[in-house]
Amino acid sequence: MYLETGLASWQSSYDTHSGLRRTFIWYTAGAWLVGMLDAYTDAYLFSFEAENTRFEGDVGFSLGAVINF
Predict the structure, then answer these.
(1) pLDDT band at residue 3, thresholds of 50, 70 and 90?
(2) Distance from first CA to last CA of the chain, Å, rounded?
(3) What is the C-alpha separation between 52 and 69, in angstroms, rounded?
(4) pLDDT band at 25 (very low <50, low <70, confident <90, very high)
(5) DSSP string for residues in 3-51
(6) How many structural domains does the chain have?
(7) Residue 50 sits in which domain range?
(8) 4 class by beta-carbon count within 10 Å (0-12 exposed, 13-18 middle, 19+ buried)
(9) CA distances to 48, 49, 56 from 52, in Å
(10) What is the pTM of this model?
(11) Whole-angstrom distance, CA of residue 17 vs CA of residue 3
(12) In-domain check, residue 12
């Protein structure tokens, strides 16, 4: 209404809603960025469990080769 009428009585309401709109835009951009980083991390670590299982199978110790009875 403030932009249409130019009345000073609507200015505080306009300023409040304009500030809220900017705040929500920043929150949305932040949430979008966190989602993109999460997706990138998930894509990077997609095969981590398979690689970790393969690594754990290769690493270990055996007492049979060291102790001769």
Answers:
(1) low
(2) 95
(3) 35
(4) very high
(5) HHH--GGGHHHHHHHHHHHHHHHHHHHHHHHHHHHHHHHHHHTTTHHHH
(6) 1
(7) 28-54
(8) exposed
(9) 6, 5, 6
(10) 0.52
(11) 13
(12) no
Nearest-angstrom CA–CA distance, 52 and 46: 11
Residue 63 lies in a domain: no
Please report whether residue 66 resides in a domain: no
Return d(Cα 3, Cα 1) in angstroms, integer: 5
Q: How far apart are CA 36 and CA 24, in angstroms?
A: 18
Do 2 and 11 meet the contact criterion of CB atoms below 8 Å apart? Answer: yes
Q: Are 3 and 17 a contacting pair, CB within 8 Å?
A: no
Q: Is 15 a member of any domain? A: no
Distance CA 28, CA 21 (A): 10
